[in-house]
Design a protein that fits this description.
Order of helices and strands: EEEEEEEEHEHEEEEHEHEEEEEEE
Strand content: 25-35%
Distance between the termini: 34 Å
Oligomer: single chain
Largest sheet: 7 strands, mixed
Number of helices: 4
Number of strands: 21
Structural class: mainly beta
Helix content: under 10%
Shape: globular
Length: 301
């Protein structure tokens, strides 16, 4: 087991299981071109992303399950939200209330109900982070000036843009309770109806991707890590609101992370977490993936 909490060199070819911390404690995550984290569940092939600090097992589908926009509207800070409040409001709090479902949340909820509802006893309610905390970086960038109010059409950098695009220091902690999407209020905001989400930019960075450098405009292509998919795939991490448009991060076909308009169509890879007490069988390879002991697996979709 290696300790790599700072992740200084995304795209550097490191491979294995590493440790960091999340909102529950120590978390162990897979990094690089690992080939022993395959899991077959509910007729889908998944990859184990990490063991959450609460002991649950976070998994993401090996392939996309379709495509969707993140939100159909884009002209307000509200639309970086997995859920959102009132567009056009004059405060951060009203803008980012968890009142309305994003388009992609509705897509994922429907997918869960169609594919995972009969497996609910094996799925844990844990945090899916839609980090809408605001960056401390203000001022002019190119032709834009960022004032960071976080509401209306004010140009705003969200914290991931500072943490991942600038400092390259990902974190698996979710600073605002309002952004910790859960079903129950005991662990987070209680805004979900079913326990499903997407990867975060931070999780993709820990897995081995490089996040496009905001200040220098540089990036590193990398197809040598297990999350790589030759497609553009949504995360649930807000990037910024700039020039009248809302942006959320995606993993692109070059293997690195950059932002894109929320009304673009991109691939969807659902993320759920298995309960900590499930017993797994298998070796985790593609030809002998982990399965939950005692659960018969239908053929993969």
């Amino acid at each position: 087991m290696s300790d790599d909490t700072s992740v200084p060199n995304q795209g550097d070819g490191t491979k294995g299981i590493y440790s960091s911390v999340d909102d529950f404690g120590t978390t162990y995550y897979f990094r690089g071109a690992v080939d022993n984290n395959y899991l077959s569940f509910a007729g889908q092939m998944w990859r184990i992303v990490r063991i959450n600090g609460d002991g649950s097992i976070r998994i993401v589908t090996q392939d996309s399950v379709g495509s969707s926009v993140y939100n159909t509207s884009y002209n307000d800070n509200a639309y970086v939200g997995y859920m959102y409040g009132t567009p056009g409001s004059s405060s951060y709090a009203e803008t980012h209330k968890n009142t309305n479902d994003s388009t992609i949340k509705a897509y994922l909820d429907n997918w869960y109900n169609s594919n995972l509802s009969s497996y609910a006893n094996y799925i844990e309610d844990t945090i899916y982070c839609n980090d809408r905390s605001i960056s401390s970086i203000t001022g002019s960038m190119g032709e834009l000036t960022f004032t960071n109010e976080g509401y209306g059409t004010n140009n705003t950098l969200y914290m991931s843009a500072e943490r991942n695009n600038t400092n390259h220091s990902p974190s698996l902690k979710c600073s605002n309770v309002n952004d910790r999407f859960t079903v129950s209020t005991s662990k987070g905001n209680g805004a979900l109806t079913v326990p499903i989400g997407l990867l975060t930019t931070d999780e993709v960075a820990f897995a081995g991707a490089y996040v496009n450098d905001l200040m220098r405009g540089t990036y590193i292509t990398n197809g040598s890590y297990y999350l790589y998919l030759s497609d553009w795939c949504w995360t649930m991490t807000p990037s910024n609101f700039a020039g009248g448009d809302a942006y959320v991060d995606v993993v692109i076909d070059g293997g690195h992370v950059r932002n894109t308009l929320v009304d673009n169509f991109n691939a969807v890879r659902p993320v759920v977490s298995l309960k900590s007490d499930v017993e797994l069988e298998g070796t985790g390879t593609s030809d002998n993936p982990f399965v939950i002991s005692g659960v018969s697996e239908p053929s993969h979709q």
